[in-house]
């Protein structure tokens, strides 16, 4: 991309800025488009493509929280992860601007600027874009984030994961994601889709653990009106909804053998038959499945069909648990601290050294989801602007210790809340932290279990 041929978009609610940039670039680049209202940004991008986008950090027209720029940056990168976005920022906003770099912006420029500096920034961004477009010329890099900041990680296992995603995403291979609860399987599934040739087509998730035997077929394959009592209308299932795009089957290790047989038939034939219909419907899906269940052990004991495994695991990706990701714990903790501080209208907190040590020493059986909740809780409850070790309390579930026996309880005052809490702890422990299995045994959905974990501060 040469400078002269560049098409540049400037989004800022300050007309003076727009006018000045237009005057400056008019004779330098092929096209300059200015836009005052960020709400028009996405429609504009769907009509026209730009080599670089200058985006204001803070639009006066909206809430003025300083995060509007970050929000619009996210929306742009959701559409096109390769977009070159340069944030326009004021002096007081530098820390937010730095965050925008982590979130995927290419660079930022501080207002007011010298014209030379502006042109230099644009030139550097265009060159970076050109380098990215020709991988042969690019230097190997070590990203701390991937797929528009959604997947953070700097550790060796994460670098390997990013590498795999890059390789596998733009293929049609069925991918099986393995890993403990909360390691980011769903995020990886989305990243694979976003980087695939199907990126502009639907990404449809089906949480198989949440589907009882009764609704499994109709949820996945759809149904015809009147085919069962509640079938008031024809309804398409997840397979059809995902056709031409990606279908993400979450918790695939949790389905029964009859469900496995139905799934296998649909995948083999590349067509589904809606409940109550005789007519097969062809579907064109790319399949991504995920599970935290030991699929191969289940197959060895005939609880999971081997032929279904072969169908879904053209490529297998195992996500590392957080305890094996070294300093990523701290990277993620800082990320979540900034996120939840912003969300709760608080300044971004610092971490005491002892806190960082405590976070690194913890084993994080619930992985990133557990860290996320722990940091959110700490940010909300902390007294000052520094997170101290005591702001992080790890519950019995997270720090292995003998679970109190339920039978011992009647000797003291019997509190219903405590009984519930201890039952949950015991069941989760029995399943080695596997939330899906624990929820199943408790007879509640995973979401309901997570809600109770929150309620009991676990
Ligand atoms: N590398 C990461 N960087 C930032 N956030 C992450 C990362 N990995 C996971 N998360 C966050 O952690 C939470 C759990 O991730 P996700 O739901 O993808 O995990 P999962 O492996 O699918 O969990 P489960 O097996 O319980 O369904 C989400 O809120 C997600 O955004």
TrEMBL record:
Keywords: ATP-binding, DNA-binding, Nucleotide-binding, Phosphoprotein, Transcription, Transcription regulation. The modification 4-aspartylphosphate is found at residue 56. One of its GO terms (molecular function) is ATP binding. Residues 151-380 form the Sigma-54 factor interaction domain. InterPro entries: AAA+_ATPase, AAA_lid_NorR, CheY-like_superfamily, Homeodomain-like_sf, HTH_Fis, P-loop_NTPase, Sig_transdc_resp-reg_receiver, Sigma_54_int. It comes from the Bacteria. The keyword ATP-binding applies. SUPFAM superfamilies: CheY-like, Homeodomain-like, P-loop containing nucleoside triphosphate hydrolases. CDD domains: AAA. One of its GO terms (biological process) is phosphorelay signal transduction system. It holds the Pfam family Sigma54_activat. Residues 7-126 form the Response regulatory domain. The keyword Kinase does not apply. This is Sigma-54-dependent Fis family transcriptional regulator. It comes from Hymenobacter crusticola.
